[in-house]
Amino acid sequence: MWNRITHFLNKQFFHFLCYFLPPAPSSLPKDPKLILVFSTTGIGDSLFDSAAIKSLKQGYPHATLVVAAHHRRQSVARHNPFIDQVFPLSKSPISQIQFLLRFRKQRPDLIVALHVNEEAVPLGYLLNRHLFFGAIERCQSFSFLLSHPIETKYETHIVEETLKVAIAAGGATVNRGMVYHVAPEDLTVLLKHHPGLKKPWIVFQTGGGRTLSWRNWPIESYIQAIQWLSAHYHGHQIILTGGHDNRSTGYAIEAATPWVINLVEKTTLEETAALLTGASMLVTTDTGVMHLGFAIGCPTLALLHYQSPASMYGPLDYSPGHEILQLATPEKNSPLQKNPMSQIAFEHVRAAMTRILSL
After folding, report:
1. Burial class (CB in 10 A: 0-12, 13-18, 19+), 310
2. How many helices (H) and strands (E) does the chain have?
3. Out of 3.55.40.10, 1.10.3720.10, 3.40.50.2000, 3.40.718.10, which CATH number does the structure's domain 184-357 have?
4. 158, 48 Cβ separation under 8 angstroms
5. What is the CATH number of domain 2-168?
6. N or C: lower Cβ tally within 10 Å for the chain?
């Protein structure tokens, strides 16, 4: 309730402020010194934004490009070589005041909002109400603060949405591939923390967060797949990954298949990325780690719910051996299933894993 009241009052305040200081679009700067990009949501969204950031840096190679990233998920930005500085941002008023003070003396010549939490949008308006680009759909109820609102809802892939915004802001036309560069020290740290790891290995991401748990694969399906792999590819280590929301799933899988290496809650995002660089295959549902696998080029079997269509969330390039198994869309009046992801047939999973591992 309190969050809704705060949101309402904040929105009314900026509507009032815009009456006196409306967003007034200016022409693109020819030689901007400082570009600020907001990319403040999840891991997957940050990876979607990475291609747009590459576009902006190549369009303005001499500008300093600063990315405001979610304070808990800034690793993606820190592994993008097209970013000059990363500023961690949270929802707290203190963090936002510090952010405004950071840019008080040198205001950004150009601001671009990609995937953002709504509270980030007023910050962009306050810093530059003349050159503030963003997608209307992503800025949601604060899109009225954009000086250059961009319509993106008809783009086919999520990456193309943010690329459209970047190009409108003067970015270069670039390859659509997502960007994440694994640092050599990340692999060193991984092997130091987990010295028992030995190639070849296969990674199972044990699901995403609780909020979108309908996208997750059932525990029984993980167990069935791991048992089959262990019988037919017994030279591979099987490794489980995931965050704190996946703890119980990891323990349940480990109890049924005790030979797995359970790294749920035991690796950072950087270490998980390093793990994927050496993996023979990643098996995952729609999670940030799935997009990390696509970005790195790890052969990935993605098990997708029909509400996460492959045309929007799948890989941009199937050449490394990526495979998609999409849950069929139910008929209009069919009853809701408790766990519809169990309907992805195991024989299709088995065939896809075989194809990937035969590469």
Report:
1. middle
2. 14, 12
3. 3.40.50.2000
4. yes
5. 3.40.50.2000
6. N
Contact by Cβ (8 Å): 230, 201 = no
Residues 140 and 178: their CA atoms lie apart, in Å, by 24
Q: Which residue has the tokens 């097209």?
A: 82
Whether the model pTM is above 0.85 = yes
Using CA atoms of 166, 168, 171, 173 in order, give the dihedral in degrees to the nearest 10: 100
Rounded Cα distance between 239 and 13, Å, is: 50
pLDDT digits (tens, 9 = 90+) for 107-162: 999 999 999 998 899 999 999 999 999 999 999 999 999 999 999 987 789 999 99
| Structure tokens, 1 | 């309730």
The C-alpha atoms of residue 14 and residue 21 are separated, in whole angstroms, by 10
Rounded Cα distance, 289 and 229, in Å: 21
- Model pLDDT for residues 347-359, shown as the tens digit of each residue: 999 999 999 999 8
- For residue 273, how far is the Cα from the chain centroid? 13
Nearest to 37 by CA among 127, 104, 97: 127
- Residue 298 phi/psi, 5° resolution? -75, 130
Task: Indicate the helix (H) or strand (E) that contains 97.
Answer: helix 93-102
List of residues 6+ apart from 105 with CB closer than 8 A: none
Cβ–Cβ < 8 Å for 302, 284: yes
